[in-house]
Write a structure and sequence with these properties.
This protein is an alpha/beta fold. Helices cover 33% and strands 25% of the residues. Helix 1 (14-25) runs parallel beside helix 9. The structure holds flavin-adenine dinucleotide (FAD). This is Phytoene dehydrogenase.
Length: 451
């Protein structure tokens, strides 16, 4: 066995779930402590009449390889539908509908030529310039700290992108992927998304959408997997502190104390700042990562108003809309969920105002919505959906390893090289497992020698 004999994982989001499974598979006795009554962290669902609604629409790209491996381990691979090829309908009250659809053939990045050439939301000259910028973006190294020091917006301007191209092409994708506008986004993270997701591999950017609510995708199957692997699970158990005790660590909760050889701290960055002992992690600059909001507007119509499974919408700002009728189990009509990223200013906006504005926006792009009745509509707000993925944040993200060999950090906000995504969360959990395996190898050998 490489790794500790016993471990506690604090936090049951995708990072914690991954770490718990990874450690258990290496023979460690694992217990996971989660403050909320469920697993899945930021990915969760709730019941509203007949609907099982997600608080936030989640999508993946085919290049989310580690996340898909986790789904396979959870037996949930069939619960996501991935497109045969990247194909995003783009609609607007001001333009004719168009789409971003990749070609079927040709080496990367030539597969994107049809997508850009046919993208009627931009004038032809802008499309040509976009092809040249896409080609230049392939030369940006996402792991180079210099790439993190500047914004994607500045880089785009330097590469001849007009405000229209930034708004209707790069911004449309950047805001959805990074939850921040190009003018503020880290070039390194944008390069990671655009290179890994679109430019370096033909199929990488094909979009996947869960067929089921998020709790059915993550919470329920994770519980079953934990039971199968003998992982202990305590939900509703908030951790209050971590301290050294002899060769191991002690974790203090509201109900008592638990000892273990090792701990994976897999909580959001603000909680990690409260829990990580300064002696183990003296540099806690991650406190400056900040937060970025996502707001979802949910509308149940009495009848279908669109045949599109999802679409990107260009208007004042861009947003994406998803048909979740079947996934949420809506018995009648059509259930649409609009995802509004980089939505800080909506966090304090009254629900009625968001709802009224958004129903008009939907009616502007789906004419059938003008004659449909709204059976139900509601708003979900996640003020801390992701960290604020601006320029300069790369230097603030800590690695999994801490000064204590028995304590590892995890979470989509740690230094995974990936944006704050489900893929980043899973990668962080894997990195924590590797870190503990490495730091416990010599000790395990020593114990064997002594025995
Ligand atoms: C609305 C929304 C939309 C999103 N859309 C996408 C998308 O389309 N695609 C994508 O890839 N990603 C998306 N994301 C981001 C993605 O959900 C996150 O990156 C990922 O789920 C983070 O996982 P995590 O395990 O790192 O953290 P979390 O999911 O935050 O898990 C941390 C866990 O720690 C627990 N915890 C905190 N404090 C304590 C404590 N003291 N004791 C015990 N437990 C504690 C929390 O309750 C939580 O369960 C979205 C996020 C939101 C909110």
């Amino acid at each position: 066995m490489s790794g500790p004999n016993s471990a506690l994982v604090v936090g049951g989001g995708l990072a914690g779930i991954t770490a718990a499974i990874g450690l258990a598979q290496r023979g460690t006795r694992v217990t996971l402590l989660e403050a909320r009554p469920r697993l899945g962290g930021a990915t969760y669902s709730f019941q509203r009449d007949s609907l099982t609604a997600d608080t936030g629409q989640h999508v993946l790209l085919r290049c989310y390889s580690r996340y898909q491996e986790l789904l396979a381990r959870l037996g949930a691979s069939d619960d996501i539908a991935i497109q045969d090829r990247l194909d995003v309908p783009v609609i607007s009250p001001h333009h004719r509908p168009t789409r971003l659809r990749r070609g079927l053939h040709g080496p990367a990045p030539l597969h994107l030529l049809p997508a850009l050439a046919g993208y009627r939301a931009l004038p032809t000259a802008d499309r040509i310039r976009a092809v040249l910028a896409a080609s230049a973006l392939r030369g940006v190294d996402p792991d180079d700290p210099a790439s993190d020091a500047i914004t994607f917006g500045a880089w785009l301007r330097r590469h001849g992108q007009t405000p229209a191209a930034v708004d209707r092409l790069w911004g449309l994708l950047c805001i959805a992927a990074l939850n921040i506008v190009p003018e503020q986004a880290s070039l390194a993270l944008a390069a990671r998304v655009f290179r890994t997701g679109l430019l370096d591999d033909v199929r990488a950017g094909d979009i996947g959408v869960p067929r089921v609510p998020l709790s059915r995708l993550h919470d329920a199957p994770a519980r079953q997997t934990f039971a199968r692997l003998g992982i202990g699970l305590h939900t509703g158990e908030r951790v209050r502190g971590i301290s050294e005790s002899g060769p191991g660590l002690t974790v203090r909760t509201d109900t008592g104390e638990v000892d273990a050889d090792a701990v994976v701290l897999a909580v959001p960055h603000a909680a990690a700042a409260r829990l990580a002992p300064a002696a183990a992690v003296p540099d806690q600059r991650w406190n400056e990562l900040g937060d970025a909001a996502i707001v979802n507007v949910h509308v149940l119509y009495d009848r279908p108003v669109t045949a599109l499974p999802f679409a990107a919408v260009l208007g004042s700002g861009s947003w994406w809309v998803f048909d979740r009728t079947e996934a949420a189990g809506a018995a009648h009509g059509q259930y649409l969920v609009s995802s509004l990223s980089a939505a800080q200013e909506l966090i304090g906006t009254p629900t009625e105002e968001i709802r009224t504005r958004h129903l008009s926006a939907l009616a502007a792009v789906f004419p059938a919505a003008r004659n449909a009745s709204v059976v139900d509509s509601f708003v979900t707000r996640e003020p801390r959906a992701t960290f604020r993925q601006g320029a300069g944040t790369g230097a603030l993200r800590p690695p999994a390893a801490t000064r204590w060999p028995s304590l590892a950090l995890a979470g989509a906000w740690t230094a995974t090289g990936w944006p704050d995504t489900m893929e980043g969360a899973v990668r962080s959990g894997l990195a924590a497992v590797e870190t503990l395996a490495t730091s416990f190898k010599p000790q395990a050998q020593t114990r064997e020698v002594i025995a």
